[in-house]
């Protein structure tokens, strides 16, 4: 027969494990500690607003607006926009160290570099959609991914990609202000 003291002693490691694991599981941010100062990263993020234009028998896809965000390892940012063929002046900025570390950690910790490059087909009835492209070089390893917005394809866009997209869109919004 097991004595109550044995139950109490056996419960201590379980309680400690719960106290450690619950905060880690419920936290929805990637820890900045995943990135270290030796990591080097360069990101080129491109957003195209595309529109299918029909010429009777033929049709082509034309960019209505293109946004390019380039982030260097030292936090320097270059943002350029081309709207209906007109190139607007570049906006240059600097990403603060904390935000850059967060971005490095997000890409490094989620395994973003290991995502296979696959092509996404566009639904036939979609005439206007957004197509995105990202090229990430992390510690001299490069990956380039192209994907459309989720409502323009029947395929599933992985959440890792949309997390990075959201973070980069947030940086773009801050630059434009």
Please give a structural write-up:
There is one protein chain. The chain is α+β, with helices and mostly antiparallel strands. It has two domains: 4-28, no CATH class; 34-176, Mago nashi protein (2-Layer Sandwich), CATH 3.30.1560. It has helices at residues 4-26, 97-109, 159-176, and strands at 41-55, 58-71, 76-83, 86-87, 91-94, 128-138, 141-148. Strands 1, 2, 3, 4, 5, 6 and 7 form a seven-stranded antiparallel β-sheet that branches. The longest helix has 23 residues, at 4-26. It is extended and about 85 Å long. The model has no long low-confidence stretch (mean pLDDT 82). Keywords: Membrane, Transmembrane, Transmembrane helix.
Distance between the termini: 70 Å
Number of H- or I-type helical stretches: 3
- The run of helices and strands is HEEEEEHEEH
Helix content: 25-40%
What would CATH call the architecture of the largest domain?
A: 2-Layer Sandwich
Shape, principal axes of CA atoms: extended
Determine the CATH topology of the largest domain. Mago nashi protein
**How many distinct folded domains?**
2
Biggest β-sheet, characterized?
7 strands, antiparallel
Structural class: alpha+beta
Transmembrane segments: 6-25
Keywords: Membrane, Transmembrane, Transmembrane helix
């Amino acid at each position: 027969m097991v004595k109550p003291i044995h139950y109490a002693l056996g419960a201590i490691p379980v309680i400690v494990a719960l106290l450690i694991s619950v905060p880690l599981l419920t936290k929805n941010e990637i820890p900045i500690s995943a990135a270290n100062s030796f990591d080097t990263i360069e990101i080129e993020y491109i957003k195209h607003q595309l529109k299918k234009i029909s010429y009777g028998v033929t049709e082509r896809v034309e960019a209505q607006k293109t946004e390019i965000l380039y982030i260097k390892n030292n936090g320097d940012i270059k943002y350029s926009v081309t709207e209906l063929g007109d190139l607007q002046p570049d906006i240059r900025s600097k990403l603060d160290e904390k935000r850059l570390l967060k971005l490095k950690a997000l890409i490094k910790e989620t395994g973003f570099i290991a995502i296979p490059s696959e092509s996404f087909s566009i639904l036939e009835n979609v005439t206007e959609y957004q197509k995105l492209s990202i090229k990430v070089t992390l510690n001299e390893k490069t990956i380039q991914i192209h994907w459309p917005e989720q409502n323009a394809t029947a395929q599933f866009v992985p959440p890792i990609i949309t997390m990075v997209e959201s973070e980069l869109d947030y940086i773009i919004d801050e630059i434009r202000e």
